[in-house]
Amino acid sequence: MPLSPKLGPEALAANLAELHPALTTQEAVIEANRCLFCFDAPCIKACPTGIDIPSFIKKIANGNPTGAARAILSANILGASCARVCPTSELCEGACVVLDLEGDPVKIGLLQRHATDHVHEHHLQVLKKPSAHTNRRIAVIGGGPAGLGCAAELAQLGHQAVVFEKKPNAGGLNTYGIAYYKMKPQVSLEEVELVKSLGVEFRCGVEVGRDVSLAQLEQEFDAVFLGLGLGAGTRLGIPGEQLPGVIDAIDFIEQIHAEPLHQVPVGERVAVIGCGNTAIDAVTQAKRLGAQTVLAIYRRGEDDMSAYDFEYELAKNDGGQFLFHAVPLEILAGKDGRVTGLRLARTQVNAAGKVGIIPGTEFVEPFDMVIKAVGQEKQAALLKKLLPKLELDKRGAVKYDFATGRTNLPKIFAGGDCANGGREVVNAVAEGKRAARGIHAFLSGHEVTGPVQPSRLGAKNGAAGSGFDHPIRVKELEEEFGKP
After folding, report:
1. What is the pTM (predicted TM-score) of this model?
2. Which of 106, 169, 228, 480 is deepest in the core (most CB within 10 A)?
């Protein structure tokens, strides 16, 4: 039988409600006053976009959420979405001094949401267009987090940024691919409007390479930023992959964003192939849509999963099940051509870390839906078509200078997933910002001064950078203690 919706509107609204409700004003002030307002704050070092976290929290504690939002959005234009989807326990909250002292960090993500929600709800314009313009035009290919981060920074530096996005709306995965219980698409669309308010032009429904050539953009613009993200889901390479009832995890999540919730079809017994964060999202969403059984299948062990621990715990709490050291060999079909199950085999990992199938261990599990979540392909073919001389690494990612976004081609800059640096939303925004500053230096000969840009690493890996020279922080300290 074809897949069908399982629950009504009311049940789905409850199941897919936000995991972490917003703080009330009183709750936000109480939480803000837990902050120690560290001088050399490790949370700043752990934020890829360099938000001055003690500064914005102090403003919330003092009853100034508008000023807090300004501090956040000046550093991270997608502060509202990052407040909802960032793995804060791995970044800012993981570096919080209060975590060591009390065992529970300051809830930085919820405080960031409180401030950014305040300005969105009251339609406050906290960022202003620059008064001076350079008359330089930059084409930004891709309207996802990296592209938005780049375009917003370029606009604030006085340049004219034009974003080319092939989908009907910009926002990338924030609009189309974030688990519904983490963030609604409207949050992302509001951020796109914020970027527009800075003077950025959007040309949605325009695919570079089809509707406009890269050569044309190189002629019409002073520089080009490549922020086109990743491509289609990686294939399993097994028989039955094209059967009805087999879907890629990104397409499954996008379907939830596109259709009324009570019309989204899901199976009774769902297999999810993979154990990354997207796979875990698929497990949780399938359960919350009404699937009776959802089983994640992973060829390695529990300790080898790339998913965050808190995501894994959420999926298990929702009733998701996990089968480790197993691999699918074939997707089986019934007489009607639809999925009926998986033929699987047990695996083992050798001393060199390679996964192999254990002979004689094949077995069959019944399923009526299979969700593939084994990653997305790099855009190598498209990039080579657009820019034959662009250098790519052996994985198909753009070779680029991490600090400036420069590629081997003079006017071409890159960042985010297509350059193998996006990872989380906040990392992609940071890459877009760095590339915008690299473009500004390329066009003007002047480097942008401001907060130290943290390294690729997060809180638990010892991120570089310092809060000492953050301009907001310096001003605040001078007001409190006087100039040195």
Report:
1. 0.89
2. 228
